[in-house]
Amino acid sequence: MTLAIAKADLKKPAKNKQQQNGGAEFDEHDEEEDESEGTKLDLIQLVHDDNQKVAELFFQFSQAEEDEEKKELFDKIMMGLKVHAQLVEELYYPLLPETATEEDKEEAEELVFEAEASNYVVSMILDVLATMKPSDHYFAGKMSVLHCLAKEQVKREEKEMFEKLKAAESEIDFEEFGSNAVERQMELQEEFAAQGKRLKGRAKSAKSVKGAKAQAKKSLTKASAKSTAKKKSSPKPKSAAKSKAKATPKARAGAQSKKAAGKDKSGVKSKTGAKAKTAGRATAKSGKKPVGKAVSKKASKRGK
Fold it and tell me: Any idea what DSSP says for residue 5?
């Protein structure tokens, strides 16, 4: 069975028919055909147009010199690539394994897997670049890698995938898919635009909070530095210093006299204690009772 591809893709003669004198003129038949088709757009043409727009944005970025212009172009590139990736993964890629023959089904699935993996890598690079500035180191290098990946994806989508879709046995109405794709594309653009606004608002609030914290930290460091400088520069009161100087010799003399008195007392106590101990030992050896105790016993007998 043949594919029901839109007339715009099947009939691609040279619209710019040149006359023998070198002048370029559109063929009248082609002009009437274009007017009759109106705004019809099939899925294949939509994919091609998206890729062409992104390629033009990459070229403008390579020619830009100001960072502000580069940032604006990058935002457009990011929007175009993310919307396109979401769109083709939803509507375009699934057609390959669905319409492929049993022999080509595995190859079609592998091709879809490669395309989705490439889109994932592109999305990661875009997220990293979104946090950077065009003047940052490696920004230009990452953009070059991104451009190479985008060109490879264009070749994969417009050549390899389209050839497999043309060779499919089932019939595909690309115009119907194209009308659905246009509606879905508008929805995705609105979603990504709203998401970008939210991210910018968060980034601004984060910057303001960070600036406020830095300002508070600076003020605290200045206040602490001032207080330490005042403490170092302020002299001690003279009266307190004099009183301490006067009281110091007296206090020292008193402390020394107290220590000497304590030593004398301890020496006397130790000597008397030693004498008592020696006397006790002598009486114990002789076996005599102490004199004081004997006298006291005699006195008690006389009293009786």
Answer: -
